[in-house]
Specification:
alpha+beta; SH3 type barrels; Rossmann fold; four-stranded mixed beta sheet; 57% helix; 13 strands; 426 residues
Length: 426
């Protein structure tokens, strides 16, 4: 019979099995009277376990499930089942025995309820309760595994936010120091101009040999300049102080929001008003030039023999002394603009940060945006993917802090939709 053939195979298994053997048995113990077949299967399984053989065995016998739970070296497993939809999930779970879900399947296919009721009475309430408890254990295990995965993801998001906020606070502190240093440099330059004006006034008085009218005019010129200087210094001092106070407040708010797991925005503006005739430099570059014309925020600048129009936010005002020092090396200036042209030609207006960690991706985007601003690009494209949207949110929060970013939006649906951000510059 089929069962006799099955037992012959089991005999060969027991005879040949050792710690290098892999045993695969389907529907172990079937083919004969369940109680007797289950007992023989249990004894064979015990023998294979003593021989340290490896194996995967499937069965519906409850006795074998109990045996596996009580013997060292044997582990229960179950194929997961959706009890709500009454359908298999095709997922293996190790550690707990599974259920055959015989009554649930019978009820789903429409077997009469009276038949199921009689079957319940015949098998006994204890067996039904055992099977029910087994299914409850499997369901609860799935629930807590899902919860654990959710907690793990939340912890990861929290760690990323804390790292980002810490980085932004460091940037804010660095920017505050840069503002103070810039103010000191401007003050030194201003002091040099004041000394020069005083020396010129004294020289004019001496050369005029105390001629009353020229002396009066020279003194008036010096007095007017002093008043203008005091007013300008007061305004600049107030402006710098406001910026420093703003940074201090934002730093305090940032520390508080790390504890509350919230997001801060740090946006610092550090340029002074540029006027016609001023000497300027490109942010992040050594190229210096002279302002020829100012039209709202558009500044026409002469960099040597090259004339171009830039947004005022891409320029910073410098002193006459610094301008003269930089202009002396005209060959370097020309070479720098050659590099500028080559960089613009080689620049690709699209970057892909998918698959990178949040902190690494954000730094890559910052470098990319800085380069685009320096070479005067009108727009760029950032591929960040969709996922759970965290990377997209971080990038857009950063773009909100960049002054020369006019707007940003999703790509068209047919070309990537919310997985791509298009950035427009002023």
């Amino acid at each position: 019979s089929t069962y006799s053939s099955h037992l012959l195979n089991m005999k060969n298994f027991i005879k040949s099995a050792n710690n290098n053997t892999l045993v695969l048995i389907d529907e172990f113990g079937s083919g004969t009277e369940p109680m007797l077949g289950g007992a023989i299967a249990e004894a064979i399984l015990d023998s294979l376990n003593e021989r340290k053989a490896f194996g995967v065995i499937t069965t519906h016998y409850t006795s074998l499930k109990h045996f596996a739970s009580s013997v060292q070296g044997i582990e229960n497993g179950a194929m997961l089942f959706d009890t709500g939809k009454i359908e298999p999930l095709f997922k293996l779970s190790i550690g707990e025995p599974g259920s055959s879900f015989a009554f649930e399947i019978a009820r789903k296919i429409g077997l009469p309820e009276e038949i199921l009721q009689k079957a319940t009475e015949k098998i006994g309430k204890d067996h039904i309760d055992f099977d029910k408890n087994l299914k409850d254990i499997i369901r609860d295990k799935r629930y807590w595994e899902t919860k654990r995965e959710s907690v793990r993801k939340s912890e990861k998001k929290l760690e990323e936010k804390i790292a980002r906020l810490t980085s932004e606070l460091e940037i804010a502190d660095k920017t505050r120091k840069e503002i103070i240093n810039k103010a000191k440099e401007d003050a030194e330059s201003l002091l040099a101009d004041v000394n020069k004006r005083i020396e010129n006034t004294i020289r004019e008085i001496q050369e005029s040999k105390a001629e009353k009218e020229r002396t009066r005019l020279a003194r008036k010129s010096l007095t007017d300049f002093k008043e203008k200087l005091n007013q300008s210094s007061s305004e600049e001092k107030d402006k710098i102080q406001r910026k420093i106070e703003k940074l201090k407040n934002r730093k305090k708010q940032g520390k508080k929001k790390i504890q509350e797991n919230k997001t801060i925005e740090i946006n610092i503006t550090e340029s002074f008003k540029i006027e016609k005739g001023d000497k300027v430099r490109l942010f992040g570059q050594d190229n210096v030039g002279e302002v020829l014309d100012v039209n709202n925020k558009s500044i026409m600048v002469a960099f040597g023999n090259m004339i171009t129009t830039l947004n005022e936010k891409k320029l910073e005002k410098i002193s006459e002394k610094e301008y003269k020092n930089k202009s002396k090396n005209s060959g370097s200036q020309k070479s720098s603009f050659t590099d500028f042209g080559e960089r613009r030609l080689k620049f690709k207006p699209e970057i892909d940060v998918r698959g990178k960690r949040a902190e690494e991706a954000l730094q890559t985007v910052k470098d990319f945006v800085d380069e685009a601003i320096v070479i005067n690009m009108s727009n760029i494209k950032i591929l960040h993917g969709k996922g759970d949207g965290i990377l997209r949110q971080l990038i857009r929060q950063y773009l909100d802090t960049v002054d020369v970013v006019r707007s940003f939006h999703d790509e068209s649906v047919q070309f990537g939709g919310s997985g791509i951000t298009i950035v427009e510059f002023e």
